[in-house]
Amino acid sequence: xxxxxxxxxxxxxxxxxxxxxxxxxxxxxxxxxxxxxxxxxxxxxxxxxxxxxxxxxxxxxxxxxxxxxxxxxxxxxxxxxxxxxxxxxxxxxxxxxxxxxxxxxxxxxxxxxxxxxxxxxxxxxxxxxxxxxxxxxxxxxxxxxxxxxxxxxxxxxxxxxxxxxxxxxxxxxxxxxxxxxxxxxxxxxxxxxxxxxxxxxxxxxxxxxxxxxxxxxxxxxxxxxxxxxxxxxxxxxxxxxxxxxxxxxxxxxxxxxxxxxxxxxxxxxxxxxxxxxxxxxxxxxxxxxxxxxxxxxxxxxxxxxxxxxxxxxxxxxxxxxxxxxxxxxxxxxxxxxxxxxxxxxxxxxxxxxxxxxxxxxxxxxxxxxxxxxxxxxxxxxxxxxxxxxxxxxxxxxxxxxxxxxxxxxxxxxxxxxxxxxxxxxxxxxx
Length: 430
Description:
- By secondary structure, this protein is an alpha/beta fold.
- The protein has helices spanning 7-10, 54-67, 84-92, 117-130, 155-171, 190-196, 223-226, 228-235, 259-263, 321-330; strands at residues 3-5, 21-24, 27-30, 35-36, 38-42, 71-74, 96-100, 114-115, 138-143, 179-184, 209-213, 242-247, 272-277, 290-291, 305-306, 309-310, 316-317, 335-337, 373-377, 424-428.
- The strands form 6 sheets. An 8-stranded parallel barrel has the order 5-6-7-9-10-11-12-13, surrounded by 4 helices.
- Helix 2 (54-67) links the parallel strand 5 and strand 6 (71-74).
- The termini are far apart.
């Protein structure tokens, strides 16, 4: 197959207006026919919407261009706000946002899952607010909803939400912006979840992309030692685009971002579509690439101050992390394939996992719940004797597994055996 040099696509210096992006097979392509790789950052300055302050977006986008970023992830937005200014700023900077559809009060809950009309309508409001922007790369249906295998009964609700939001998108005749899921990197859970969300042969129910929040690569390390070789083995010829929606271990520090050479290198670049670094703003967890001022007392108050950190102003690089990432990305110019030369038929078809494997509870390609149904089962949930230690990083606005800056291939043990044949039943949520 003919390869193409994509420095113009992976670089940040694209000109207004940007081509749109679609998912085809296991790759992203621009409307110009070039393969697209993400080089981005998580961008959530406060729990509120970071895409409503145009002047702040201008300051941040200018520095993101210097960093070499071409994408951002935003975890929470206010669909009633005006985003025209910020979205125009990021478009002119060559930056594509990915937007989470859920809000603080509409998450799909892992232990008591449901998918109802209120959730659907709130997700739809976010889609309605952002679909008009050509530089929207994709929507996340959820972030780390399931963090241990005994929560896997929530997986059909993730898939049901995906189905209904794709149907809403198509009914409204919107552009087919990809809709996907951001998963926690749980060693025993990841293989089943990524296969389940892409199995069954019905593209209207499956995610358009699968993303992973992974902190396995902690510098200094190498590809074979980091855990990435294992991630790659499970991503080979994956049915849809797969990428890192959070990465950037900060132990022992400083961060060297050596994983970027692996992700965009010969071992992984044919199957992975890039990475988003966690995160833009410096907070208590010390993952920030920039800061807006020195750390303050936790009780400090004032304009744009929250949790002991200033959250607006002139961004100043956190060194040497910012420069280390900038230097890595400057040398990364992956070679991709033209859309016209790409045959998506080479991707794999994933079987729906059966219950009992590593504590996974969903038995095959079960019927998905409709809107308004909640879960009951004919078998008790198993109790894990050792739960994964998962919490959200201090100051983060999203549920995530990144507080502990050690590798995040969390181990779940002690799951009960003999869980084959768990059946799912649904009752209406009134």
